């Protein structure tokens, strides 16, 4: 059995005060958010890209074939912010299966902000699908207007319009 070295891709968000009626963190709440923010065709194309465990700390993490590890911090956030987090992490999974594979988590070929801008790609997916203008602290290069426009158009075509590339993974 092939063993992959798993590198983690992370989004960290801080600084938003919790509301008085903070939600209880759970993977089911995270997956409800995922279901509401990710188009069905994309969810069907990458069924393992879902919340598989809750972790401590303020960072949620995605890894190839390991699902989304959602921080309790994110999982208790108001729905619109949790949707943003889940869309960001789902963006990493899109990259695992449809990315250029230039590096681990690389954006699809043609992404205007550079395919090796791994976090910028996820930032654009999060903005495109959730409509929330927010950036994790590890997103050094934010999604640009051009990046957002390109990502929206790329996503709208649906998974069937794009080649799956994970067979070419070499990292
Ligand atoms: Zn990320």
Automatic annotation (TrEMBL):
Which N-terminal stretch is annotated as signal sequence? 1-22
| Organism ancestry | Bacteria, Bacillati, Actinomycetota, Actinomycetes, Micromonosporales
List the protein's name.
Neutral zinc metallopeptidase
- Superkingdom classification of source: Bacteria
Gene source species: Actinoplanes auranticolor
Keywords attached to this entry: Signal
């Amino acid at each position: 059995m092939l063993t992959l070295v798993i590198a983690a891709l992370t989004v960290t968000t801080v600084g938003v005060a919790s509301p008085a009626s903070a939600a209880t963190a759970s993977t089911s709440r995270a997956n409800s958010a995922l279901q509401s923010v990710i188009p069905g065709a994309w969810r069907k194309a990458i069924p393992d890209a879902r919340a598989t465990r809750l972790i401590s700390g303020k960072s949620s993490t995605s890894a190839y074939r390991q699902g989304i590890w959602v921080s309790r911090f994110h999982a208790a956030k108001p729905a619109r912010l949790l949707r943003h987090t889940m869309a960001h992490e789902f963006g990493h999974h899109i990259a695992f299966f449809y990315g250029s594979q230039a590096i681990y988590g690389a954006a699809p070929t043609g992404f205007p902000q550079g395919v090796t801008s791994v976090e910028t790609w996820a930032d654009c997916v999060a903005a495109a699908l959730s409509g929330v203008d927010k950036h994790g602290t590890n997103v050094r290069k934010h999604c640009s207007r051009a990046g957002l426009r390109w990502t929206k158009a790329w996503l709208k075509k649906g998974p069937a319009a794009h080649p799956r590339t994970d067979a070419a993974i070499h990292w």
